[in-house]
Amino acid sequence: MIRVQREDFDVGRELERLTAGDHTIGGVASFTGLVRDMGGPERVSALTLEHYPGMTEKKLREIEAEANRRWPLSASLVIHRYGRLEPGDRIVLVATASPHREAALAACHFLIDWLKTDAPFWKAEETPQGERWVEARSEDNEATRRWRGE
Amino acid sequence: MKLLYFAWLRARIGHAEEVLSLPEGVHDVAGLLAWLQRRGGRYGETLRDLSVVRVAVNQEYVGPDHPVCDGDEIALFPPVTGG
Question: Which residues of A fall below an 8 Å CB-CB distance to B?
């Protein structure tokens, strides 16, 4: 399941809901992304996440389908927020459940790597110098390429 | 066709979307980008370096050779930074 929303989410409740009623699940892996402030002159007081409504949901569904093709997952969940967020706020939750830990852990890693380079979101940081658009990192593209086997 | 702009492209061009008819002589993404550059002003300035511009046609990432036609939804944006 995928969700794109402005509101916060409760990680515990989401994980509980993901596995409820399926006793073949042996493990759940999850990744929670938070707004970061590294301090110093580049202090981030907040960031605003912009996205492309329609295409965002489409790409997240494709990425989730690809994870389910690659690993035997019992359930999967991607929640991505948009709007203005402050340091410490949750941005994204990826969770995967499977009878076995290897599939859950690998699929979770795959999903967060792949969504960083394929889901149409953009971050603008509020800093003492004004608004700054976060630039894409080449390490992120390399992480996704590894999964593509390139 | 409907053109959408996101992130700093939207901020610099000054609006999030516009509707226009397919300009004469434009057949693909590269042609459309060149036409927008020739419009000058904020378009020329914002689209000066196309290496930092990504394009989606009807919500799919595409390259410069991808055809464009009237009725398409065409989005221009910088490389994505979600997660």
Answer: 33, 49-52, 54-55, 58, 80, 91-92, 112, 115-124, 133-136, 140
What the block records as the tokens of A17 is: 């809901």
Count of domains forming chain A: 1
Q: Which residue of A has its CA nearest to B5?
A: A52
Distance CA A60, CA A78 (A): 8
All domains in chain B, ordered by first residue: 2-77 (3.10.20.30)
Three-state DSSP at A27 gives strand
* Position B23, amino acid: P
Q: Is the ipTM, as predicted for this complex, more than 0.85?
A: yes
State the Cα–Cα distance between residues B14 and B23, nearest whole angstrom. 21
Residues A97-115: tens digit of each pLDDT:
999 999 999 999 999 999 9
